[in-house]
TrEMBL record, chains A, B:
<dbReference type="Pfam" id="PF00356">
    <property type="entry name" value="LacI"/>
</dbReference>
<dbReference type="InterPro" id="IPR046335">
    <property type="entry name" value="LacI/GalR-like_sensor"/>
</dbReference>
<dbReference type="GO" id="GO:0000976">
    <property type="term" value="F:transcription cis-regulatory region binding"/>
</dbReference>
<protein>
    <submittedName>
        <fullName>LacI family transcriptional regulator</fullName>
    </submittedName>
</protein>
<keyword id="KW-0805">Transcription regulation</keyword>
<dbReference type="InterPro" id="IPR028082">
    <property type="entry name" value="Peripla_BP_I"/>
</dbReference>
<dbReference type="GO" id="GO:0003700">
    <property type="term" value="F:DNA-binding transcription factor activity"/>
</dbReference>
<keyword id="KW-0238">DNA-binding</keyword>
<feature type="domain" description="HTH lacI-type">
    <location>
        <begin position="4"/>
        <end position="58"/>
    </location>
</feature>
<dbReference type="InterPro" id="IPR000843">
    <property type="entry name" value="HTH_LacI"/>
</dbReference>
<keyword id="KW-0804">Transcription</keyword>
<dbReference type="InterPro" id="IPR010982">
    <property type="entry name" value="Lambda_DNA-bd_dom_sf"/>
</dbReference>
<dbReference type="Pfam" id="PF13377">
    <property type="entry name" value="Peripla_BP_3"/>
</dbReference>
Length: 353, 353
């Protein structure tokens, strides 16, 4: 659906567009019945006032929504109580919004659910939030298209979405740096647990694979299909994938996991099979979660500046909401990561707490 | 402040209480200026319509707030990116509310901040939420008293707050069971890392200590001051506390940590000092977070039915909001925990994934 203008609303309500404008900016000056007719027309048309009109209104909601794209992810007990990025990111956004006097609203958005998009549209058309942070997992997410069509203030988090404001990590460079480090320090057969097979987060998985491939090429190491292993995002997935790897005749001498939680399972499986880390196999994680400094051995991991990204995304959103950033002035930032080296790749590393 | 009635509002606005009632239930039947006068009086008096009056109103917000009590907790980068209960609980509540068509609003409430309570009061007086889940850390939390005075629908999570609906864990029984198990299986000097020294969560810490003390008494073991060690809630806290313990001449033969994250630090410190777990010292955590099955050795831990508690708290809140539960019919539930035994207390335990 295209962007509705106040002229569309005026036509529907059978009034002049000046009257619609008056309702938007000085509703108290319009007779009640006229106002109600116009408001009904706005609802029918899912009309969203433009930035300029809205900024003239007296009561912004001072609320933003964090909308998490979820695929067919099970909402079962086990899945819910996983320590996932969603919980951490909610916590970080909640605190940052709170510090700035904004209220945070949480929504999940499931493109497979029949009423998925309309539940999010409701937040927009009822003006319950001033803007949105979208945690998208693919660039063609229909929610992004909808928000763009409505010219509603939003920022994409964690993905470089063309044409939108975004805060994302330099995923390719992150894995490139880790694999280059492993190759330079002696690893020759580096396995990449590349992430889930279910198509979610596919741009992220693809970017990381690019970093892996490029680093191997630079080091003159072959790209071996048998060393690129699809794997889910939990410790159990990492555990099982590693046991399978160890059953092969030709073991890798390093494993790069797509996530620290996966790496915890990798370390456990290697320990249970009596494989020494880093002596026989070296291990690298991704995310540098707090626990990574305390695994046995402690885990070398890739750290993204998550809180910095959260602050950037929120600040950008506020600029867009308040109209100090023009729609064409896209804020798009790929944040660099850094490799935190610990015992799982270098024995005797001093603890980096 | 006491509960304001519509008579107080009527007096303030200089109208009859029937007119105030009309504004609450059929605002469209009241002249605009009169309505605005009455609404201003409501705001001035921080008037909150009673449950019965509110249930007659046409538009409930279909929103609930999760309000987390925070002390002087630093909102710095390190603290924010810790995997804490707050993130996990937010994620669980967000999903459950979402499944039921409710919107989740997040707020932090800091009793030390000058505008702390008024920011929460705003949500109530502006009727932006229909109810609240309060994550309180002490029973005399002023937020609880405020909500009780206003007769606003709320449920306390994680603490047995007298006079309020609550979902809490049987904290005393949880630690009692763990320590009894350790004593019965041969531990004689059981150290208890009892939790933070800063007074937060003090009822929880006290309940857990009671369980420790009772189990020792039952087993005929002495309660030794030197084995009750205050300790923060992070892995680093557990790491440092354990190093100090190991420097003493008289080492314990078991350590019960107040939290799994703390236990991760305990395991790491024991490993770094070459102390065998469970051979020389056995370790028990609390919370049974997903990673605990993958530590080296895997961690025996106390599991609370968190998701069940979240569902109970939400269902109770909805009953109160919808008026199907009367205010005097308190829903108060202490949920039992269970001990999940793994390698950190019994060598050779089969993995419990």
């Amino acid at each position: 659906m295209g962007q509705m203008t106040i002229k569309d609303v005026a036509r529907r309500a059978g009034v002049s567009f000046q009257t619609v404008s008056l309702v938007l900016n000085h509703p108290e000056k319009v007779a009640r019945t006229t106002r109600e007719t116009i408001e009904a027309a706005m609802r029918d048309l899912e009309f969203v006032p433009s930035l300029a009109a809205r900024s003239l209104r007296k009561k912004p909601s001072r609320s933003i929504a964090c909308v998490f794209a979820v695929g067919a992810r099970p909402d079962d007990a086990a899945g819910l109580m996983q320590e996932t990025d969603e919980g951490l990111l909610l916590q970080a956004f909640a605190t940052v919004t709170d510090q700035h006097g904004y209220t945070l609203i949480h929504r999940r958005w499931c493109r497979d659910a029949p009423d998925g998009l309309s539940r999010i549209t409701g937040l927009v058309s009822e003006a319950r939030v001033d803007g949105m942070v979208v945690f998208a997992e693919c660039r063609d997410d229909p929610l992004i298209a909808m928000l763009q069509a409505k010219r509603f203030p939003f920022v994409v988090f964690g993905l470089d979405a063309p044409g939108a404001h975004f805060a994302a990590r330099a995923e390719r460079d992150a894995v490139y740096e880790a694999v280059r480090y492993l190759a330079r320090t002696g690893s020759r057969s580096i396995c990449f647990l590349k992430g889930a097979q279910d198509g979610r987060r596919s741009p992220t998985v693809a970017e990381r694979f690019r970093g892996y491939r490029d680093a191997l090429a630079e080091a003159g190491l072959p790209l071996r299909d048998d060393l690129v292993v699809p794997c889910g995002w939990t410790s159990e997935d990492g555990y099982r994938a590693t046991l399978s790897l160890l059953d092969r005749p030709d073991r890798p001498d390093a494993i790069v996991a797509a996530d620290d939680r996966v790496a915890f399972g990798v370390l456990k499986a290697l320990h249970d099979r009596g494989v020494h880390v880093p002596g026989a196999i070296r291990v690298v994680g991704f995310d540098n979660c707090v626990q990574s400094a305390f695994t046995i051995p402690s885990l070398t991991s890739i750290e993204g500046p998550t809180l910095e990204m959260v602050r950037f995304a929120f600040a950008t959103l506020v600029e867009v909401i308040e109209g100090t950033r023009t729609p064409d002035d896209l804020a798009q930032k790929l944040f660099p990561t850094r490799l935190v080296v610990r015992e799982s790749t270098e024995a005797g590393t001093r603890p980096q707490l």
